[in-house]
Amino acid sequence: MITLVKIFSRSLSSAMRNKNVRQSLFLIFGLIFISTSLLSINMVGKTYRYSIGDIAREDVRVPGDIVYKIESETQMERKRISETAPLVFDRDQSVLLDRLKIVDLFFEYVDTTLKEIPPQGVEDRTFQFMTLKSRLPQYLRFDDRTIYNVLRYPRPSEMSAIVKRILIYVMDRGILEKPYDNPLNIQNRNITIRIINVATDTNEISKSPDDLKTLAEVKKELYGISRSIAPNLNNEQITVVYTIVRDLLRSNLKFNPEETRRRIEESANSVKPVMGTLKKGQTLVREGDTITTETLNRINILNSYTSTTHVTFIIGVFLLQLSFLIIFGFFLLEYHARLLPGEKTPIIIFSIVLVFLVYTFFISRTENILNSTMVFSLYLPIAAVTMIISSLFNMFIAIIVGLYCVFFTTLITGGSLPVVLLAFSSAFLGVFVLTNVERRTDFLRGGLVLGILNAVVAVGVSLMEEYGVYDVLKNVELSLANGIINSILVLGIFPIYENLFGITTKFHLLELSDLNAPIFKRMLIKAPGTYNHSLMVSTMAETACKDIGANYMLARVGAYYHDIGKIDDAGIYIENKVTDAIAKNLSPVEYSKKIIAHVEKGVELARKNRLPEQIINFIREHHGKTTMTYFYHQALEEADTHAGSGAINKADFQYPGPKPHSRETAVVMLADAVEAASRSLQEPTLVKLESLVKKIIYNKLNEDELHFSDLTMSDLNKIQKAFMRVLTGIFHSRIEYPDQEELEKLERKVLNRDDEGAGIS
């Protein structure tokens, strides 16, 4: 884990040294703040102040779906549910158990007495009665007649069982001390009896109020109950059993007002609020109408909703965008060279997204458009945003920006499915419809394709939402218009960014790549060797940039112009066969200074021809700070031969730089060096060419010329292979064709041989 943290911190530290990365993260924070503010403002709407009987000064419409609680209906529902909550009574099981213990103890005394003083076959139990009565504690004493008759019963244990059975039957039904008088004034006929003081979990039994009996009522019914439970006993025995049970009966059922209240409150709280809905675009009152009670209630609901700051919503939006920043930051740290190809890229993308956010915000507050979320999404230039960014830079950054635009659109419309689908399709189609655009007129073709595909999506969404035929046709019409308008918008915005930010677009590059331009005609006439060299370098650079995913068109055009500074002094350069007589009399230092000067002359000529800064960078950086080793070596030899010739300063033989600051200029530097060196090879072979390419690339790498270029070792390997493909195509072995005279001589020789053979045969 610690190792991973260290690796990440090193990657972060390395990436943060890049100005583009720092600037991008700062601007993203700015966008998060702006978009969160816009979304928050959009959630807080206008409030209205009216009283009953007032005349509406304007139309009052609902800006978005509002779900609100209907308090009166909710209270009615809670009251209804509360009245159905059962009344709670507690039946104390310990009362019954206590009565049963008394029965057992009483009959135990009876049994002991009869065993100690057994009857002698006579009916008289006077002696046993006197003994038992003297032994019984006060709480076990029944009337004398009952005790005497119990002693006369032949099987006391049987009578004990009958008494307990009757007690259980009667007391399990519950016995009230006094009639239930509804102390809580609850109109409810449902009763729940809880059995308390039991070893197991508390059980509950549902009953009706009519089933509740008081102690007095139970005693009135007790004789009949005893007779039904013990039908085999005679009248005297039934009377004994009845008397014992009657004297033992106690109330064991009691109303529990606290538990009843708790359950009523719990039932009321469990009721879900009765909700009402004000739909987006719904008109609550029109201008000039009288404010009624119902209208005022709805306006108050609207006011309470719109005046809420929605703090949780704002925090949620901020956290979501922060997560987006973290995800994008990861890609930025790893692939910043590909995502941000130029120094002005972050500012340009920031300006495009900012305009989109502000435009979408104001459109979302236009009530007529918001009446249909699908129509709203077709009014947004999401496709234009991704089309511009993918054309100016690359599809990777365009996809990321497109996803963010979809995210913002989804939030500002409340997550409507039609909006999400159409916004998503517009964003991604905008990235890919202009993939192979080479002329400005191709934008209209891309816009038409975008409109048709969006129309298909719109039809699908319309069918899902069950729109009418008229609405479906209207959405198709808007989709087609959206595609065309987006393409026209992109065409109009491109020149603004080209001039305002000095950015070089694909179409500007196509215009600059015209080899019939006056500057190239002049180069072809005055410096034909330089002209051919530039074409070769452009071919090599374009091939290599395609392989490493760099801007191959920029590299090709930059290679065309990289040596335009040689036009005026073409005669001093080896590729033009050194026709200038002055060059032969120059010292190594003077010669090298003249050659080095072609960089500055090229920059001046480029500015004179109003070439964009990105092309000028190729002229300025294609030699970096390389040392002209040929002239430096020549100067050192002369200094060694002539001791008094003066000191040799290496800086006089070095190009002023700067070193390449982009992958494209670095590739052109390598292609320039390789192409020039390949011309000096005698009888070039595949091995010689490969050795030369490797040597030049690794020399540039070791001299730190590629430090600011963001080229990786993998890129350099691909560049080497690309150069080899081009060079082997140029220096491939050719078949030496025989001349006509030799061909005729060989024909005559073959014909003579055939004639001689025919004569012999």
Description:
Helix 7 crosses helix 9 (about 235-250), helix 22 (about 520-525) crosses helix 23 (about 530-550) and helix 28 (about 665-680) packs across helix 29. This protein is about 65% helix and about 5% strand. The relative contact order is 0.06. It folds into 4 domains: about 10-40 and about 310-505, no CATH class; about 45-70 and about 275-305; about 95-250, no CATH class; about 515-730, Hypothetical protein af1432 (Orthogonal Bundle). The protein has about 750 residues and is mainly α. The strands form 4 sheets. The protein has a 4-stranded mixed sheet with strand order 6-5-3-8.
Q: Key terms for this structure?
A:
761 residues, mainly alpha, four-stranded mixed sheet, two-stranded antiparallel sheet
Strand order of the largest sheet: 6-5-3-8
Percent range for helical residues? 55-70%
β-strand percent reads under 5%
Q: How far apart lie the N and C ends? A: 95 Å
Average pLDDT number: 82
- Quick one: biggest sheet? 4 strands, mixed
Overall SS class: mainly alpha
Task: Please tell me what the overall shape is.
Answer: elongated
E-strand count: 10
Q: Any idea how many domains? A: 4
Question: C-alpha Rg, in Å?
Answer: 51 Å
List low-pLDDT spans. Answer: none
Tally of separate helices:
31
List the helices and strands and how they pair.
Blueprint: H1 2-16, H2 19-43, E1 60-61, E2 66-69, H3 71-84, E3 87-92, H4 93-116, H5 126-135, H6 144-152, H7 156-172, E4 175-176, E5 191-196, E6 203-207, E7 213-214, H8 215-229, H9 235-248, E8 253-255, H10 257-269, E9 275-278, E10 283-285, H11 293-306, H12 311-339, H13 345-364, H14 367-370, H15 373-378, H16 382-392, H17 395-412, H18 417-432, H19 442-464, H20 469-500, H21 506-512, H22 518-526, H23 528-548, H24 552-561, H25 588-608, H26 613-621, H27 629-641, H28 663-678, H29 686-702, H30 713-730, H31 740-760
Parallel strand pairs: 3-5, 4-7
Antiparallel strand pairs: 1-10, 2-9, 3-8, 5-6
Helix pairs in contact: 1-12, 2-12, 2-13, 3-10, 4-5, 4-7, 5-6, 6-9, 7-8, 7-9, 8-9, 12-17, 13-17, 16-17, 16-18, 16-20, 17-18, 18-19, 19-20, 22-23, 23-24, 23-28, 23-30, 24-26, 24-28, 25-26, 25-27, 28-29, 29-30
